[in-house]
Design a protein that fits this description.
The protein has 191 residues and is of the alpha/beta class. It has 3 helices and 18 strands.
Protein backbone atom coordinates (compact mmCIF):
# COMPACT_ATOMS: atom_id res chain seq x y z
CA UNK A 1 0.00 0.00 0.00
CA UNK A 2 1.49 3.37 -0.95
CA UNK A 3 1.30 6.38 1.34
CA UNK A 4 -1.81 7.78 -0.38
CA UNK A 5 -3.72 4.49 0.10
CA UNK A 6 -2.47 4.22 3.67
CA UNK A 7 -3.55 7.79 4.38
CA UNK A 8 -7.05 7.21 2.98
CA UNK A 9 -7.37 3.89 4.86
CA UNK A 10 -7.26 5.65 8.22
CA UNK A 11 -3.88 4.28 9.24
CA UNK A 12 -1.43 6.54 11.05
CA UNK A 13 0.89 8.33 8.62
CA UNK A 14 4.17 9.78 9.87
CA UNK A 15 6.53 12.36 8.35
CA UNK A 16 9.30 9.81 8.93
CA UNK A 17 7.98 7.22 6.46
CA UNK A 18 8.81 6.80 2.77
CA UNK A 19 6.56 8.75 0.45
CA UNK A 20 5.49 11.36 2.99
CA UNK A 21 7.33 14.06 1.06
CA UNK A 22 5.30 13.12 -2.04
CA UNK A 23 2.05 13.39 -0.03
CA UNK A 24 2.99 16.85 1.25
CA UNK A 25 4.13 17.93 -2.22
CA UNK A 26 0.75 16.87 -3.67
CA UNK A 27 -1.04 18.81 -0.92
CA UNK A 28 0.97 21.93 -1.74
CA UNK A 29 0.23 21.51 -5.45
CA UNK A 30 -3.52 21.25 -4.71
CA UNK A 31 -3.38 24.27 -2.41
CA UNK A 32 -1.61 26.23 -5.16
CA UNK A 33 -4.38 25.35 -7.64
CA UNK A 34 -7.04 26.46 -5.14
CA UNK A 35 -5.10 29.68 -4.42
CA UNK A 36 -4.93 30.37 -8.17
CA UNK A 37 -8.71 29.92 -8.46
CA UNK A 38 -9.33 32.10 -5.41
CA UNK A 39 -7.08 34.89 -6.72
CA UNK A 40 -8.84 35.14 -10.10
CA UNK A 41 -11.76 37.16 -8.79
CA UNK A 42 -15.10 36.41 -10.43
CA UNK A 43 -15.15 33.18 -12.43
CA UNK A 44 -17.82 31.62 -14.60
CA UNK A 45 -19.36 28.37 -13.36
CA UNK A 46 -17.48 26.58 -16.15
CA UNK A 47 -14.15 28.02 -14.97
CA UNK A 48 -14.86 26.98 -11.38
CA UNK A 49 -15.73 23.47 -12.58
CA UNK A 50 -12.43 23.26 -14.45
CA UNK A 51 -10.53 24.21 -11.28
CA UNK A 52 -12.56 21.66 -9.30
CA UNK A 53 -11.70 19.01 -11.90
CA UNK A 54 -8.02 19.84 -11.44
CA UNK A 55 -8.35 19.80 -7.64
CA UNK A 56 -10.40 16.60 -7.33
CA UNK A 57 -9.20 14.71 -10.40
CA UNK A 58 -12.81 14.10 -11.49
CA UNK A 59 -15.66 15.87 -13.25
CA UNK A 60 -18.20 17.69 -11.08
CA UNK A 61 -21.79 17.63 -12.36
CA UNK A 62 -22.82 20.91 -14.02
CA UNK A 63 -25.81 21.16 -11.67
CA UNK A 64 -23.46 21.67 -8.70
CA UNK A 65 -22.26 25.17 -7.80
CA UNK A 66 -19.21 26.13 -5.76
CA UNK A 67 -18.52 29.77 -4.98
CA UNK A 68 -14.84 30.61 -4.35
CA UNK A 69 -12.84 31.19 -2.30
CA UNK A 70 -12.43 27.52 -1.51
CA UNK A 71 -9.73 26.03 0.70
CA UNK A 72 -8.59 22.42 0.39
CA UNK A 73 -5.63 20.27 1.31
CA UNK A 74 -5.40 17.09 -0.78
CA UNK A 75 -8.48 17.34 -3.01
CA UNK A 76 -8.39 13.91 -4.64
CA UNK A 77 -10.60 12.29 -1.98
CA UNK A 78 -13.58 14.63 -2.50
CA UNK A 79 -16.72 13.33 -4.20
CA UNK A 80 -19.56 15.79 -4.80
CA UNK A 81 -23.03 14.82 -6.00
CA UNK A 82 -25.51 16.58 -8.27
CA UNK A 83 -27.43 19.75 -7.50
CA UNK A 84 -25.20 20.84 -4.61
CA UNK A 85 -24.62 24.43 -3.57
CA UNK A 86 -21.31 25.13 -1.77
CA UNK A 87 -20.91 28.72 -0.59
CA UNK A 88 -17.73 30.76 -0.34
CA UNK A 89 -15.03 30.39 2.27
CA UNK A 90 -15.42 26.65 2.90
CA UNK A 91 -12.48 24.47 3.93
CA UNK A 92 -12.34 20.78 2.99
CA UNK A 93 -9.48 18.72 4.48
CA UNK A 94 -10.23 15.51 2.61
CA UNK A 95 -7.32 13.16 3.23
CA UNK A 96 -9.70 10.79 5.04
CA UNK A 97 -12.33 11.10 2.28
CA UNK A 98 -15.31 13.43 1.86
CA UNK A 99 -18.46 12.21 0.13
CA UNK A 100 -21.22 14.74 -0.50
CA UNK A 101 -24.56 13.42 -1.76
CA UNK A 102 -27.05 15.07 -4.11
CA UNK A 103 -28.88 18.29 -3.32
CA UNK A 104 -26.62 19.27 -0.40
CA UNK A 105 -26.48 22.92 0.71
CA UNK A 106 -23.25 23.99 2.41
CA UNK A 107 -23.27 27.53 3.79
CA UNK A 108 -20.27 29.90 3.89
CA UNK A 109 -17.26 29.13 6.07
CA UNK A 110 -18.14 25.47 6.67
CA UNK A 111 -15.21 23.23 7.62
CA UNK A 112 -15.16 19.54 6.69
CA UNK A 113 -12.12 18.10 8.49
CA UNK A 114 -11.22 14.42 8.04
CA UNK A 115 -7.71 14.43 9.51
CA UNK A 116 -6.48 14.35 13.10
CA UNK A 117 -3.13 14.17 14.89
CA UNK A 118 -1.81 11.41 17.10
CA UNK A 119 -2.74 12.33 20.69
CA UNK A 120 0.70 11.07 21.83
CA UNK A 121 2.80 14.24 22.17
CA UNK A 122 5.93 12.33 21.16
CA UNK A 123 4.29 11.43 17.82
CA UNK A 124 2.04 14.48 17.35
CA UNK A 125 3.24 15.12 13.79
CA UNK A 126 1.71 11.80 12.69
CA UNK A 127 -1.85 11.98 11.36
CA UNK A 128 -4.76 9.67 10.65
CA UNK A 129 -8.02 10.23 8.79
CA UNK A 130 -11.66 9.23 9.10
CA UNK A 131 -14.17 9.80 6.28
CA UNK A 132 -17.00 12.31 6.34
CA UNK A 133 -20.21 11.29 4.55
CA UNK A 134 -22.96 13.83 3.91
CA UNK A 135 -26.08 12.15 2.59
CA UNK A 136 -28.56 13.67 0.10
CA UNK A 137 -30.46 16.90 0.82
CA UNK A 138 -28.49 17.91 3.92
CA UNK A 139 -28.18 21.59 4.85
CA UNK A 140 -25.08 22.63 6.80
CA UNK A 141 -25.34 26.12 8.33
CA UNK A 142 -22.80 28.92 8.21
CA UNK A 143 -19.57 28.41 10.11
CA UNK A 144 -20.28 24.79 11.08
CA UNK A 145 -17.43 22.31 11.49
CA UNK A 146 -17.81 18.60 10.80
CA UNK A 147 -15.09 16.47 12.38
CA UNK A 148 -13.50 13.19 11.22
CA UNK A 149 -15.63 10.07 10.96
CA UNK A 150 -19.04 11.78 10.94
CA UNK A 151 -22.00 10.74 8.79
CA UNK A 152 -24.80 13.29 8.38
CA UNK A 153 -28.05 11.54 7.52
CA UNK A 154 -30.50 12.28 4.72
CA UNK A 155 -32.34 15.60 4.91
CA UNK A 156 -30.74 16.73 8.16
CA UNK A 157 -29.87 20.29 9.14
CA UNK A 158 -26.73 21.31 11.01
CA UNK A 159 -27.18 24.67 12.77
CA UNK A 160 -24.86 27.63 12.25
CA UNK A 161 -21.52 27.50 14.08
CA UNK A 162 -22.12 23.94 15.25
CA UNK A 163 -19.29 21.47 15.82
CA UNK A 164 -20.42 18.02 14.70
CA UNK A 165 -18.52 15.31 16.56
CA UNK A 166 -20.94 12.36 16.12
CA UNK A 167 -23.21 10.96 13.42
CA UNK A 168 -26.44 12.86 12.73
CA UNK A 169 -29.55 10.71 12.16
CA UNK A 170 -31.63 11.32 9.01
CA UNK A 171 -34.28 14.05 9.09
CA UNK A 172 -33.06 15.73 12.27
CA UNK A 173 -31.82 19.17 13.28
CA UNK A 174 -28.67 19.41 15.39
CA UNK A 175 -26.84 22.41 16.77
CA UNK A 176 -24.30 23.63 19.29
CA UNK A 177 -20.79 22.74 20.36
CA UNK A 178 -20.74 19.82 20.42
CA UNK A 179 -23.80 19.51 18.18
CA UNK A 180 -26.76 17.90 19.91
CA UNK A 181 -30.19 16.76 18.75
CA UNK A 182 -32.73 19.61 18.61
CA UNK A 183 -35.70 18.04 16.88
CA UNK A 184 -36.96 15.72 14.15
CA UNK A 185 -37.89 17.22 10.79
CA UNK A 186 -41.55 16.35 10.31
CA UNK A 187 -42.04 17.75 6.82
CA UNK A 188 -40.50 16.47 3.61
CA UNK A 189 -40.12 12.90 2.55
CA UNK A 190 -37.42 10.33 2.82
CA UNK A 191 -36.32 8.75 -0.39
Amino acid sequence: MDIFEKDLSGAMVSPDEPGYDKLISTIFDTMATAAEMNAKGWLTPEEVHEYLRRITGREIDKSTTLLPPFYVDYGKNIRIGKGCWIQQGCTFFDRGGITIGDGVFIAPKVNLITINHDPNPDNRSATYGRPIVIEDKVWIGIGATVLPGVRIGYGSIVGANSVVTHDVPPMTIVGGNPAKFIKKIETGSKK
